[in-house]
Amino acid sequence: MVRIVPFAVEQWMDEYETWAKYNIAETCSASISIDDLRSLSDDPSRDPLSTSTKLTYGAIRGSQTLRSHIARLYAPPTGDDSSTTVSAENVLITPGAIQANFLLLYTLIQPGDHVVCHYPTYQQLYSVPESLGADVSLWKTSGEDGWKLDLEELKAMVRPSTKMIIVNNPQNPTGAFISQEVLAGIIDIARQSSIYVLCDEVYRPLFHSLDKTEWPPSLLSLGYDRSIVTGSMSKVFSLAGIRLGWIASLHRSIIEDCAAARDYTTISVSQVDDRIATFALDPLHAGKLLDRNLQLAKRNLGILKGFIDAHRDTCDWVVPRAGTTAFIRFSRDGRPVDDVALCQMLQDSKGVMLVPGRRCFGEEFKGYVRIGYVAETEVLETGLRELGEFLKAEYASVPLI
């Protein structure tokens, strides 16, 4: 019988986000409206919505235009081997990346399989394989060494039964990234035993603190036919409300198998969501939206860094290089504070929402909280100001662990 453990971070968000005054726990780049989306176009006659379209099930795998736009996100640099080219047929549209991940794991993982998962990360990526009967090994990283992955450790973790290696790039909650060199090393290890490699790329390419020449490629660009990526419109493209994500792979049979399994769940995605995403990912618009969010991330990270620098007596971190999240450790008298109590007391007192690391990412992350800093700048500034007031007046009463 399938038994799945509670999804801690999503339960926390559900309990606290609806009444937070200053939600700086959100992981999406600041959301945009349909009017904001229209403003990206230089052609006023173009519209992301059409009131005359009949609302049928639509294209079961996603419209051809949308899948072509997504495939273009994985276009190899000029001069690369054409075997890495992704076409629309290599893409399957899903209701959000969360369904993309679930569907893929449900399709490929069986009882008795061994899975290695990058950690800490989004709980879905290790709890779902466990629920399907897989033995999951956590490939752990630490803030003490900058959240770096150790390839030698990965080699030692691989077994004859290893079916999949799962990574997250850029990474939630730490804001770290996996370099091209390490990605290539993961592929080399996987190729030796024909292991699938899944990379959750929902935060790619928000490499806001890297020169563009340093941006690591998508896993698909490395040409391994058992590589799979998932993505969505939520984090990078500010459209979480349309609930649209995707699976992409060079291995067409993976897409076919996932499509067959999906017939038992959602069948298709909303035509409205498909049309909005198609408009947003049009090459004339997608670059503008990405630039907007890269600039927002850079500006807001500077604000957050100023806050951390001013409160070094209470908190420390590894500065995030990519994505939208930071993992910050709070302590007092050399001991970690109770991060769950900190988050609860802060929201009760100031209306500021954070996510506790110990509750939502693993018991070893005592004192850690996750901040989502690519919110509207005013929300982040006000939330940090209120957090600063809390630290002055009430921090001494937060329990220690």
SSE blueprint:
Elements: H1 8-16, E1 22-23, H2 34-38, H3 64-72, E2 91-94, H4 97-108, E3 114-119, H5 124-131, E4 135-140, H6 151-157, E5 162-168, H7 180-192, E6 196-200, E7 227-232, E8 245-249, H8 252-262, H9 271-281, H10 283-310, E9 315-317, E10 325-332, E11 335-336, H11 339-350, E12 352-353, E13 355-356, H12 357-361, E14 368-372, H13 377-393
Parallel strand pairs: 1-12, 3-4, 3-5, 5-6, 6-7
Antiparallel strand pairs: 2-8, 7-8, 9-10, 10-11, 10-14, 13-14
Structural features, described:
It is built from 13 helices and 14 strands. With 401 residues, it is α/β, with parallel strands linked by helices. The model has no long low-confidence stretch (mean pLDDT 95). It has 2 domains: 8-33 and 287-394, Aspartate Aminotransferase, domain 1; 48-285, 3-Layer(aba) Sandwich (Aspartate Aminotransferase, domain 2), CATH 3.40.640.10. The chain is globular. Strand 10 and strand 11 (335-336) form a beta hairpin.
Q: Summarize this, please?
A:
By secondary structure, this protein is of the alpha/beta class. The chain contains 13 helices and 14 strands.
